[in-house]
Amino acid sequence: MVSVIQKKNRKFKEIDYYKNEVSNYFLLPFRFQKINFQKEILVNEVGDFLIVPIGTAEKIILKKISKIDDEELYFDLISNFFISEDPIPILLNVLEARYRTKKSFLEHFTALHIFVISLRCEHTCHYCQVSRVTENKDQFDMSLYNIDEGIKIMMQSPNPYITMEFQGGEALLAFNNIEYAVKRAKEEAILHQKNITFVICTNLAPLSDDMLPFIKEHNIMISSSLDGPAFIHNQNRHRPQRNSYELTIQGLEKCREALGEDNISALLTTTNLSLDYPGEIVDEYVQQGFRNIFLRPISPYGFATYNEKKNKYQTEKFLNFYKTAFDRIIDYNKKGYYIREDYATVILKKILTPFPVGYVDLQSPAGMINNVIVFNYDGKIYASDEARMLAEMNDFTFQLGVLGQSSYNDIFYGEKAMDIAENWTNESLAGCSECAFQAYCGADPVLNYATQGNMYGYRPTNVFCQKNMEIIRYLFNLMEDESIEKIFRSWITGHSE
Ligand code: SF4
């Protein structure tokens, strides 16, 4: 009996422990995460953050933050809605309004309508599933019937601002169809009071001078591809004459001259070869006068599906590539040449501004269906471009319907869409629901399915998670340096200081 009492007594802590007053604030929802050996980050429901010494989150939760001794932190926590002196904060409606604003990219529903206008291509890029250069035009171009049916669906979008994007194969090989589609869409837009932006995604090789007047007249944006200097670009993008790079550069110059700098952009496809040349790729973009570069990861579709080891290795390699290229980009900015990295800019907008950022690949609910829909050349309708790539591998899990057969409701609110919807908010996915970076990240059921076999995914080995977690942490770390934070802010506003 005596020994039991002694044992209980030993549980008492030192007297100082009991002297420390426990504050009587209330906790509001927030998440936290270590970002380096000294610091951790606290993030509230709308993405406001505080970077604090490690151990602060624990102190907050144990109510050890004192109004007197930790005055500055205490009031930062109150004003940023991490804690409250009332069970329900008096300014709760401010938090509600900010949450609604952050999610307001959902208000108008689908904006981007991708028309795969032709599957034909005169390139034979090794990473591409769809090259069929010699194939029959009638079989692999989108029919006028499917174009009309796609426009009918597009006009039913509740969104008054829509984008019609032409993709391939190589879209310019079906330029007649593009001309037809643009004219038809414009006629319908008047009837349905829509504002349309047109985009052609092209490798620029088939661009001819007689196309430019039409492109200019209809204010069509050109989205091209530049994989880096000639030795990378030509290796990635095979043509029998090995001159893809030369044609791209010629095309870029022609477009800039005819359409203006702002109407032409280029995308980078990162391949295994690219991973060894981060500096050279950034240098090439600067040499060609670009003010932005999008360091896109290797796509796991088609070559690394269901192989966790390989996916993880590829993502690690990509992250090393990303950081080395990013350092070079920062160096250029420090030397006075403004060039921003697009993926980081999306994340930084989410971190540093209260505005909604509806970027298709990094949002919750996910961009598929909510922001983008794909009409394939053969009339099949997919939830996203990646869903179409899966279909090229004969997996039709994300096919939502068929043009001319499926109604708007079948496509956007049908059973398939509902299944995907169960997995498209990171607020409700295990791992994401308690992640400090949730407000800056997104959900990608197609990628989860392609790499892990189901739409829900498993975060500890998930490539989407691995990439975003590290990039977001990396950006926060860099932001500790004031000169870099200044550069980041210039990327968000779109002009140098
Ligand atoms: S995917 Fe990863 S980084 Fe993104 S919210 Fe989920 S757990 Fe966080």
TrEMBL record:
Keywords (A to Z) from UniProt: Iron, Iron-sulfur, Metal-binding, S-adenosyl-L-methionine
A GO term for molecular function: iron-sulfur cluster binding
Keyword presence, Endoplasmic reticulum: no
CDD domains in alphabetical order: Radical_SAM
Cofactor: [4Fe-4S] cluster
Domain Radical SAM core per the UniProt entry, residue ranges: 117-260
InterPro entries listed in its UniProt record: Aldolase_TIM (IPR013785), rSAM (IPR007197), rSAM_paired_HxsB (IPR024023), rSAM_sf (IPR058240), Sulphatase_maturase_rSAM (IPR023867)
Family affiliation: Belongs to the radical SAM superfamily. Anaerobic sulfatase-maturating enzyme family.
PANTHER family, per database record: ANAEROBIC SULFATASE-MATURATING ENZYME HOMOLOG ASLB-RELATED
Name of the protein in question: His-Xaa-Ser system radical SAM maturase HxsB
Biological source species: Flavobacterium hydrophilum
Gene: hxsB
